[in-house]
Amino acid sequence: MHDDHFLVIEAAQSWADGYDYNNWLPWNNSGKPSGHSWFYVGLHFFLLKALNFIGLDDPQGKMVVVRFLHAIYSMGVIVFGYRIARRLGSEKDAIRVAWLLALMWFIPSSSVRNLVEWVCVVPLLLSSLYLIKAEQEGNRQRHFILSGVFAGIAMSIRFQSLFFLAGTGLYLLYRGKIKGGLLLATGFVMAFFITQGADLIFYHRPFVEVTEYIQYNLLNATTYFDRPWYQYLLTVGGMLIPPVSIFLIIGYCKAWKKALVIILPSLVFFLFHSWFPNKQERFILPFIPFFIIAGTIGWGMIREGKLMSKAELFSWRFFWVLNTAGLLVLSTTYSKRSMTEAMYYLYQQPDFNNFIMEVSHRDSPQWPPQFYSGKWNQAFCIYKEYPTERFITYIRQHPSEYPHYILFFQEDHVWNRIAKFKKVTGAELTFVHKATPSWFDALLHWLNPRNKNEPVYIFKIAEK
Amino acid sequence: MHYLQFCAMNAIKRFYNEHPLRTILALGLFFRLIAVVFPKDSECMTIIFW
């Protein structure tokens, strides 16, 4: 099982290197679509290809470039969030929105990742901004079309953005703007068709990936998680730090008339995700900026002309203290450190040819990010279903494929596992490196054991 | 030292009063650049509670 925390860069880099690591290409998967949008991954393919071309081979160096570009791109969230708030509310509201979108504890950290749920926010905000412009500047056709174009781009990045568009459609219907809606739909279809053009190239049919994605999610609605409907209410209430999050919830309700143009699309999105059983924290991220904008405008309406009470002043101070602490922690953390560092250690070894992942105590291994090893060859994995005996049978028939390194994951009986490997294979092992998890990985593991906290012991193999 | 601090704070306040959005953008960029320096797991936000 691959770790989908590295899905985008692994697929893109493997294509840039002439491989197809995840078997997404039709000739590697019997012509069945994988259910992934190729737009965002495709952009990474071109970027990583360009980095290869200029000679930047170091995986960590490449990721600094990827994160940097995402950081610059994500500044759009602040600018467009501010502009929307300025058009729907006061300057004071807009400045408060900008503060929150710039420095909310999880936003800078989310902004530099290949997190499609956050990357789609910029075109979603632009789509709303153009719709507001269309309404405020005499229903100009160009603005409706541009609103649709950005909605199409957002959906190409994250298919669930469709629910924002559904909310926008409801809004335009409510306002009786049928012509505007048709123009917006035209822009949307054009943009989505073009950005999903890879489907035509590879499958000679349009929209096959989105169709496969919908089918997969309907069939697997409860495969990963099955959470109650109120889960995201708690997530949003907790992530935005109470009692300020309560102010924003009240404000979001209060602003329903004034900011309906952003409330209806975001609400449809929120309701869909609350209804859909598979709930993960990141899925709700596109809702957050819209919630902050509408919530701040509504809270501004409630507070208009009044002095801030002591309790409210204390609430905001409490928020900024806690938020700053979270911001400093999350922005400076190195997550999944041991897996990344283990692979990067291999990348730095001149004799690295291939490796064995040893998790013989586990039923289902979670594959480390091979992107950081710089090689795409099929590594060996020793786990319950594929014990050392099977590995040694295979390798005796193919001795040229013997890897130079073996990686033991997790502390569980690690010295027994090492001894067993030596006994069965007869190989000499020399300990060369221990890749340790970061303190943040340890903290997350403590908060929720689902998060792996596994040191990786790397040994060099000398065959007898 | 205190005088310098006082001057720096006044300059920042004045700049903020004149250009609030630019100040916020600069701060936002600053923290994003900090996040750029520290490697992250790439795609998913690590599951914190569930």
Polypeptide structure, described:
The complex is a heterodimer of chains A (464) and B (50). By secondary structure, chain A is mainly alpha-helical. Chain A has 21 helices and 5 strands. In chain A, α1 packs across α2 and α8 packs across α10 (178-195). The longest helix of chain A is centred in the first third of the chain and has 30 residues, at 59-88. The radius of gyration of chain A is 25 Å and the shape is globular. The relative contact order of chain A is 0.10. The termini of chain B are far apart. The longest helix of chain B has 18 residues, at 20-37. Chain B is mostly helical. The chains are: A mainly alpha (464), B mainly alpha (50).
Greatest interface and its participating residue counts: A-B, 59 and 27 residues
The amount of beta strand of chain A, in percent, is: 5-15%
The value of Rg of chain B in angstroms is: 17 Å
- Count of helix runs of chain B: 2
- The class by helix and strand makeup of chain B works out as mainly alpha
Low-pLDDT runs of chain A: none
User: What share of the residues of chain B lie within helices?
Assistant: over 70%
Q: Report the count of strand segments of chain B.
A: 0
Number of strands of chain A: 5
Amino-to-carboxy terminus distance of chain B: 49 Å
**N- to C-terminal distance of chain A:** 31 Å
Would you tell me the structural class of the helices and strands of chain A?
mainly alpha
Radius of gyration of chain A: 25 Å
Order of SSEs of chain A: HHHHHHHHHHHHHHHHHHEEHEHEHE
Specify the number of helices of chain A. 21
Sheet having the most strands of chain A: 5 strands, mixed
